[in-house]
Amino acid sequence: xxxxxxxxxxxxxxxxxxxxxxxxxxxxxxxxxxxxxxxxxxxxxxxxxxxxxxxxxxxxxxxxxxxxxxxxxxxxxxxxxxxxxxxxxxxxxxxxxxxxxxxxxxxxxxxxxxxxxxxxxxxxxxxxxxxxxxxxxxxxxxxxxxxxxxxxxxxxxxxxxxxxxxxxxxxxxxxxxxxxxxxxxxxxxxxxxxxxxxxxxxxxxxxxxxxxxxxxxxxxxxxxxxxxxxxxxxxxxxxxxxxxxxxxxxxxxxxxxxxxxxxxxxxxxxxxxxxxxxxxxxxxxxxxxxxxxxxxxxxxxxxxxxxxxxxxxxxxxxxxxxxxxxxxxxxxxxxxxxxxxxxxxxxxxxxxxxxxxxxxxxxxxxxxxxxxxxxxxxxxxxxxxxxxxxxxxxxxxxxxxxxxxxxxxxxxxxxxxxxxxxxxxxxxxxxxxxxxxxxxxxxxxxxxxxxxx
Length: 453
Hints:
The chain has helices spanning about 90-105, 165-180, 225-235, 290-305, 320-325, 340-355, 365-370, 390-400, 410-425, and strands at about 1-5, 5-20, 20-25, 30-35, 40-50, 55-65, 115-120, 130-135, 145-150, 155-160, 195-205, 210-215, 240-250, 260-265, 270-275, 275-280, 310-315, 330-340, 360-365, 380, 405-410, 425-435, 445-450. It is an alpha/beta fold. The strands form 4 sheets. An 8-stranded mixed beta sheet has the order 7-22-23-21-20-17-18-19, sandwiched between helices. The chain has a 7-stranded mixed beta sheet with strand order 10-9-8-11-12-13-14. Strands 2-3-4-6-5 form a 5-stranded mixed β-barrel.
């Protein structure tokens, strides 16, 4: 051990993982949390004590885990995206399943539940959206394009080898990087406020093959974007490049926003399909990132309500209305509520495209809108953002006395917190099912069926 005042550097063996992505080891009997470590590894970490807990910053893996037997992407370990690239997929599923089970047990919620986990239909090339960042691989290094490096706000790990997207993404990334290197274009540096290149967002319909490319810059680049357009159009992609966009984002925020949107080619949207329904997706629309995995996820939601033919279904936090439309055959009326106006406009348009007439979509915060709804729902679908349901909204939802609720969660710790409140107010858990929507990452979706006692 090397002492560094209140900090120390120590080799620690990782024995398990707790959500979210916290490797667990022990030092002198104390639990140490080490982000990005996996069971069986011995890691060198800089550890400090904060609020009574020990936290280790991973410096080096000094001994690999016996689980690490799979060839990983060459950027793995640098890239801040994947965690489980080097282990067999079946082991990854077991880790995710255990993380969710542990959260339920810790909260003493029905520990005899069956935590079945449904694997992703594919673990490579599964993503239908990637947001790549421009930057350098090291300070003052050459221009690069990829994912943010672990523990860095500026440097990027080159993603031309990324295997969770298909070959079209890699061709587009490499062509874009080559083009702007040749033109000596600089990435936007947030501290110095110099340069222009911010992001490259690529989206592709898995079931349609349609591709939408969005170049995001700070101000206007000096490069000729017509030449950039022609370079992309001549790549010989497997999919069809239906739109090339240029978004100008002059804000200080790193979020992809639009002060101006220019269409360089085609249109500013693409189509994809889920379970026989067609969806129009714009550059900024939310859509499940794993299309084939989403079909399995939504099939579970449909299964959990399929034995009930009901009057009214509420789809709260409905996004672009995907679940609402899928369940439209199960009810006379489906009402969706979503705070993002653009998503609601997309939901209305997609319902028209699919010839669905019994879905109504409301733009507004669930916290406020649930108090304005006069219908009495038989079923409520809950698909909130990562932080879960607002504490003030959850009791308004409970007051509807719906016979059944289906909670779709992308963050099991938020789910467990909300489930405790539902259980205290007359609901019981009938089924749980996990879905791996993001292979090679620590994320996992959990679907829970609740029924009124």
